[in-house]
Specification:
Layout lengths: L1 E7 L2 E6 L11 E10 L4 H4 L9 E2 L4 E8 L11 E4 L2 E2 L5 H4 L10 E2 L9 E4 L2 H4 E3 L9 H6 L3 H11 L7 E5 L3 H12 L4 E5 L3 H10 L3 E3 L3 H11 L5 E6 L4 H9 L1 E9 L10 H7 L2 E4 L4 H13 L9 E6 L3 H9 L5 E5 L1
Parallel strand pairs: 11-12, 11-14, 12-13, 14-15, 15-16, 17-18
Antiparallel strand pairs: 1-2, 1-4, 3-5, 3-9, 3-18, 5-6, 6-10, 7-8
Helix pairs in contact: 5-6, 5-11, 6-7, 8-9
Length: 340
Amino acid sequence: MRGAVMYGPGDVRVEEREAPRIVEPTDAIIRVWAACVCGSDLWPYRGVEEYDWPAPMGHEYAGIVEEVGAEVQTIEPGQFVVGSFWATDNTCEICRAGYHSACVNRVPMGALGAQAESLRVPLADGTLVATPDIPSDDLVPSLLSASDVLGTGWFGAVAAEAGPGKAVAVVGDGAVGLLAVLAAKQLGAERIIAMSRHESRQRLAREYGATDIVEERGDAGVTAIKELTDGLGAHSVVEAVGTQESMMQAIHATRPGGHVGFVGVGHDVALDGMDLFWSLAHVHGGPAPVRRFLPELIDLIWNRQIEPGKVFDLELPLDEAAAGYRAMDQREAIKVLLRP
């Protein structure tokens, strides 16, 4: 089969890879209908993270089940399915508490490489959620987004306790940040402040429910948010970048007693104990337990109540994956969808 492989920073190739097969009786094999490039894929692409090169790429996926292992009970061939970027059993104590991304038996899907024509999904019963039927083509981008960026933005908003009567600020205007805006709107937030300097992203943030746009960053961004919230700061702040500046901006923009939901993959982020102490902010986040939200998100998408797939503003054939990485690296695209 064809699949994307990263050989080092800036070096993505699509080449022949060994086709996946059933390894464990709990596995499923899916034919990938759509995959995509994630913002977190850019960390190794930019040389910020070291991988064991060459590395198969991709952890977001949606497609048709082709084969299942002998012990798989809830998923069957022919179904269209969406799965999380972690394979999880959905039965362990941690999963039952809603934190599937820390499942005691979790398997990172990125290690299996979803930017490919086919994919092995471990723990299929606990990882994959089937749609009611085969979706129309226009629903596929939105369903694909549920595999990671929608679920991650949703978790950020939930962790920040976005809800009715709340002012919510979102730090980051990538796909996760934009979908955190959508999530805050769905959760009933009264005011949603999107932080963005890019007109196309501002426009989509408004479409998803942002009531205000703040272009400033750092201390100036904090000041702007406080000016919009009677000098107090937002009740809920979603941090969707993963840098020192974005994390401190999120914490400082939160009112005393408010909540920060951080879902940006942190790189060189350090929190000062006294700064955190005096903020009186609740800080919660980490890798999103996407599987926890998948049934609800798929239902919202299927019934056309939300359209998160709009974050895909560039679609390419799988063989042009390298161009997709370049486009996202240069911020020429919000998020790139790949069609095998």
